[in-house]
Amino acid sequence: KVKQESPGKSVWLGETSSAYGGGAVGLSDTFVSGFMWLDKLGLGARLGLDVVMRQVLLGSGSYHLIDDNLDPLPDYWLSVLYKKLVGPEVLKLLAVSDSGRSKRVRLYLHCANRKSYTSGAVVLIFMNLSRKPARISLPALVSSSTLDAFVLQSIEPGEEGLKSRSVQLNGVLLKMMDDKTIPELSGAQLPPAEHLKLPAYSLGFFVFLEAQAPACS
Known about the structure:
Layout: H1 2-5, E1 12-16, H2 33-46, E2 51-54, H3 74-85, E3 86-91, E4 97-98, E5 105-112, E6 122-128, E7 134-137, H4 140-143, E8 147-154, E9 167-169, E10 172-173, E11 188-190, E12 195-198, E13 202-208
Parallel strand pairs: 1-2
Antiparallel strand pairs: 3-5, 4-7, 5-6, 6-13, 7-12, 8-9, 8-11, 8-13, 9-10
Helix pairs in contact: 2-3
InterPro entries: GH
Protein name: Heparanase
């Protein structure tokens, strides 16, 4: 509609979160909300939205990013990682597929943020909403590249962990180092591979360092 009525006009999505009306108690401020939040960011970018605004940093309802004690909630860490790793350029995801063709695996592909990575690097955004691990195959563009893995999981296993207010990055609990300092959000470097394994109920990012994608140069 915007393209039709006002060609070239940017589209912003304001006051958005994992649920409307203040959020869902016990869900919007827990690990499980990250799946909808990350999917919204990936889908919004693919559809051409220029800006997505998160509602809210602190206070109002159950969808805040920081709790009353000023401790970050799971969606805060996810948002910081997205800003750090993901560039604005959206790439077509043609050759990457999960082995079971499961609708519970969702994938998006972007150029990596050039403030964090060298030109040509790409980032695969992933979500595995299944209770079982999933395997995805990689196209030649990235299968020969080393990668940084940023895998987010609940601190508790299984379905019960979906309602946890704590999250771990590559097996390490994310928490403030002191009142002003967040930890270093580093990826786990992996060798080139034709397939990647996604843990059950996980989401995150794989950055392919030597992809040398022309669109990202």
